Amino acid sequence: RGQVKGNALFYSLDDKMVFLSLPGAGGWSPSSSDRYQWLEVDLGERTQITAVATQGRYGSSDWLTAYLLMFSDTGHNWKQYRQEDSIGAFPGNSNADSVVQHKLQHTVIARYVRLIPLDWNPNGRIGLRLETYGCPYNSDVLSFDGRGSLLYWLSPRPRQMTRESISLKFKTLKNSGILLYTEGQSEHSLTLELKKGKLLLLLRQGRSSSPDSHHLVSLGSLLDDQHWHHIAVERHSTHLNLTVDKSTLWAQIPPRLTHWDYDQGNVTFSCAEPVFVAMTFTSPQSYLWLRGVPELSSTVTSVGLQFQTWNRGGLLLTFVLPKQGGAVWLYLSKARLHLQIHKSGSALNDGQWHSVELISRRGHLTVAVDGDEGASSHASPSFLLTTGSQLFFGGCPAEGNSQECMNPFKTFQGCMRLLTVDNQQVDLIMVQQRLMGNYSHLQIDMCGIIDRCSQSHCEHGGSCSQSWSTFHCNCSSTGYSGATCHSSIYEQSCEAYKHKGNTSGYYYIDVDGSGPIRPQLIYCNMTEDKTWIVIKHNNTELTRVRPLPGKNQHSAHFEYTSEEEQLAAIISQSEHCEQELTYHCRKSRLLNTPDGPPLSWWVGGPGVGQMQTYWGGAAPGSQQCVCGLQENCVDPKHHCNCDADRTEWANDSGLLTHKETLPVRSLVLGDVHRPGSESAFRVGHLRCHGDKNVWNAAFFDKETSYLHFPTFHGELSADISFLFKTTSSSGVFLENLGIKDFIRIELSSSTEVLFSFDVGNGPLEVHVKSGVPLDDNRWHRIRAERNVKEASLRLDELPAATQEAPADGHIHLQLNSQLFIGGTASRQKGFRGCIRSLQLNGVTLDLEERAKITPGVQPGCPGHCSSYGSLCQNQGRCVERPNSFSCDCSPSAYNGAFCDREVSASFKLGTSVSYTLKEPLSNKLNRSSSTLPSSIYSDMTLRAENVSLSFRTSQSPALLLYVDSYHREYLALLLNKHGKCSILTSKVRNLANGQLHAVTISRLADAVSVQVDQNTKEDFNLTSDVEFNAIRSLVLGRLDPELSRLATLGFTGCLSAVLFNSISPLKAALLHPGTSPVTVTGPLVQSICGSTSANPYAAETTHHLSVGTGQPLVNAIRSDSALIGGVIAVVIFVTVSASAIMARIFYRRKGTCQSQDVKTVKPEDSPELAFSGSQNGPSENQKEYFI
């Protein structure tokens, strides 16, 4: 071991720079080459050290390849120097002659320097020549003993200073005490107080030391380590900047703080340096073994120590009991101290020093924690400590006698000091010099504990906890996920939720993803083709203006449910926003004239907003209403209806659509106090649609094409997400380079995505392999994140792949070139295909705008149905759009953005819905030739039908659906208890029970299938093929008596999702009453009775159709296109009842069922319906099929 006095080694350069080097040409080389060697240099006085340089031993193969640097003021209590990113090791030499110099990123003030070899040339020994660079450092010091104070009064100033500052350095072994006290003229005071090793800034009222103080900020950690720490307090007029070492926080304070008082301590102008030798247990292999302990007394024996750690568990001390054949363990578990099975103390892994003393007194073993402030516990049964015991601290030797040291617990990682045996302090310097005991993997005379949560990397309010080697973030209740709570778990818009298949409702929206804006609960309206974000405020009702005495104006203010930052972000990223503004008036003018001063106005826009003098539907600054813009106001002389000042009620209403003036924040009405004036106003919710980020895309048609953007800044946290589709098997999506660092995401094969980067620790790669090809020209989503703890990559909905970062490696990603999208700087391995919705740290890159000015790249990317077509449900068709897609629900019995919203209605006994399909040919031929349509109805044939519907009723028998033709053929779907003639009865029972049931019937030629609910499909075969010709109409509910003998049945209950081939009569009647060939008779009430969650007995109150009885609803949006085979010539008659499902089929042949007289039966008179011949029944040449 080398220790060099610095006196003879100083050289002066212009009395400013000093350097030290070892004398002689050879250099330093210890007799043993292991990691327990060091070179220590005494610089003679405190020095500001700026750089170090190393060289190998002259003329040899001896040099260091890596080393640690330690610094100290006293030659004890060493502190390891750590570079940026907490890197401790310095790279050394590659040969014996070259000089490797390292400029320290932050200078160090110390007297002693210690270099500890880590690695050296494997073909040589430890060898070193060393130089240090720096300047002498002189400063005044004060020493405080905790009982006095130093007062400093600021001299009076002629004017108030806008900026004042005070700075100091301190070091202490006490974890609590007041450092600085300052008092202002208003008797407010600020205190800088050290508490549990952290610096707290406290604000107090008055001159008393009342505990009622307001905690402003806390900064720093482990400040009681007897090393110098820098504090700076900078006071501005309204705030204060607090700096501890390299960290700064801002705090709001009262003004006029002019009295500075440095408090606590008897003052001496020198600095006492108490010596405490600590040791650091750095790894699971660390232990200290003390042998040769003096003979322990049988009456009183004690072992004591102090420790600090972040770990929740670990062995502190163990020794065997030879006479009892057992052992004693003193250990931490779950942050509590345990002596065998007895425990004492709690929360001992807080990074603070804790004292532990193990005492054997008269056969009783006692453990005491933290002296009088702690707790104690007694072991049972009692026993004596005997001679010959060996003490093991922290752990056990890796290769030792298991009878001497057994450790069933975790090893200790942390610091210990002040070890005592029988009240005699153990000399750890003798241990370090191998003169006493033995040890392994210990750093003696220093405590290397690091607070990894002091400058927490946990984002978005995540709580930080730590162990010796790493930290953990608890992200629960934050709305974010990942190792550092960086990535939002919520979508950024309602549009994004919609295209995951969600329906209308309240959703948490995080508009900036991983950015600082918090997620908020917002209502998403997805019932239309457009997806609306609805932001509510405190008053959306029509409000009557009630003038207040003494006030000439009426004002209203609107508070929105969203925070200001989120509100601005939603408006900015939406394609369109609107807000309804309505004013009802009677002798109450609104805006006056465009040339005169406005009587009323509203305030809108970002921040506090700006005064606006136009009304809904007009242009900003026009001082007009929409009627003035359209020139249809009630008085042409005015530009608003209300400005006509009439005694009749009028109104001005319209939509505000200029995003830069939204939302409406307040409203001021000025003409409300005149006699006879009456008015009311309404400000609607803010509604926005169209997420500009979701569909922002670019198409790269060449491997050499790319887009470039400014350098990506994601030094500590970076998240990247986008969607892609391609037919190529490889290509680079994204790349950004630095001098040495880089980040890249690429498609490495047709089934694998690769995320790679380097922050100075060497390249790190994360792979995700897909089970399906990724070059299928369908959209796939990539989400990559890199933070100081780990890197992760997720593809579509596959599990995320992760790679941990080195525990003490570089953490800053330093890039300096342009960001390349779709290619690389070398123009090799470029990507061919589409990239969409690219976001970096929550910010969307505008690919389309950049693509417009970039050759080889096209803005936008069509072809979304291949990926999202499955979202169109219930036979809805996906329709491509330039920047999105939509669902065409015309062939479906459902409605909604994804054809997923049921169309249901409640029927009364007299309700009827009739949908007319075709006009008879005879009627067309009797028309004037000038009015004949271009395509004349012809007798085509359809040999297949598909019928589906849902119902809920307690009526039996009942008619659900009736389809008739011009040839007196029909199809009917009924509820009945029995069927006449030869009926094959379904096994499904009890359908008229008030519950929701679904029926599906399909026929192809002579094959018929019937399915009820989720029961097994039942298949039937007709005796021969049948046709159903010239279909005339579809009827739901009660029939016209002229149509059928079934007319008296009718239906009471709910029908939902009725579909005959592609015809939905219920949907046409409810949603397209003015343009469909539908006739509605009786009350028809739209409802949600078809929902499985609906209460069948609840009142079904929804939208009512205001249609006169029997009034036809004409000019259909006709959905007859599925009948392309002509009019079918078969009638399927299906009886679905409380006990049976039956299908009855007619076509023109001689009947096999004998015709019988029919008796008209009312549903309420008979529990079943009899089927028999009549003038409305099958004729002689018709045949009935019963299934």
Automatic annotation (TrEMBL):
SMART domains: EGF (SM00181), FA58C (SM00231), LamG (SM00282). The keyword Repeat applies. The chain crosses the membrane at residues 1122-1147. It is found in: Membrane. Disulfide bonds join C834-C861. The keyword Transmembrane applies. Residues 449-486, 862-900 form the EGF-like domain. Residues 277-447, 696-861, 920-1089 form the Laminin G domain. Its main location: membrane. CDD domains: EGF_CA, FA58C, LamG. It comes from the Eukaryota. Residues 1-135 form the F5/8 type C domain. Residues 485-537 form the Fibrinogen C-terminal domain. Residues 1158-1187 are annotated as: Disordered. Belongs to the neurexin family. This is Contactin associated protein like 3. The gene is LOC127374655.
